[in-house]
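Fig. S4 source data, part A: sequence.
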Amino acid sequence: MDFTLQFEECIYLSCGQPYAYEGVAYDGNAYYFTLSNAPCIHIYQKDFSFMASYETCRNYSAICYDSVNYCFWASDHAHPNMLYCLDENLNEQSIFTIPIDKNIDITGLSCDDIHDTLFISFYEGVMEITKDGQIQNQYAPIIGTFASVLSYDEAFLTLRAHNDMQFLDFQSLDGTLLESYPIDCPYQIMNIIWDYERMKTCDMLCFLFLIIGKDGCPCFIKCCLKPCQCKPCACDLDDCNRSDSVCRLLSSIACIEAALSHILNAEGEKIQKAVEIAGNVCELLEVNESVRKTVTDVTMLEQVLFAKLNAVLEIDQCINNCEDCKN
């Protein structure tokens, strides 16, 4: 069954004050908001009424609640690659550095209670790490940048931005894009969190999108994934599902090809810029080697896509043959 992402209600927070909320966590009793411009955390009750402001030792950004260890995990922009463990009273207990060879500005955090791991989103990707900082998996966006992440069963959700559009993506733990929903919202979504209270009374996936409204005040937008109400077609459902699967596979190949074209274009611009500003031949050779490696990786991926395309065409041919047999 197909689903659509539907918005239901907008809830204004902070009593109309233009607080710059960035991260949000929910511990089953209250909502915790980090502020991008102040070292404190605002706490709201379940009914979204303001409860308290708690001063912290640093300016936290992303935050999530760990229901296995009864603590919070948080990051801050001032110290890339670092995660902080806070107790239930928001006191800092421990710190560790993610072992990665580049600085990552963490945009979202989510606890995976099933595997007892953490999902971390940053602009260039998502990674799954253990709670002592060891990297388990790394994922890169096909197109665009990641703004937030949520763990979900044997998959994860990401809030992705591309060309002034925002998408809610479902990905499996092997990185396969399972589904992508465009988000029809005129405002930038700062973060996303499960609407656990709503999901207690329904069997849908429900979310709370944190946005900054046009008046500068933070809001929660309630939304959920609802079954599509489109009238089913009169054709054989199995045939429809097979044809739809073929279309989705072809669409995924096209998306990756589009991303690769952007990569190759960027590499071409890199060479042009290097020719303009390089001070010596050694610098040009370094750029050339970098571009060569990228083109080699793209070529290998193209071979995989070619094999995938052939497999899809074979599936499509089988479907057509089955239809001929029925006729």
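Fig. S4 source data, part B ends here. The longest helix spans residues 281-326.
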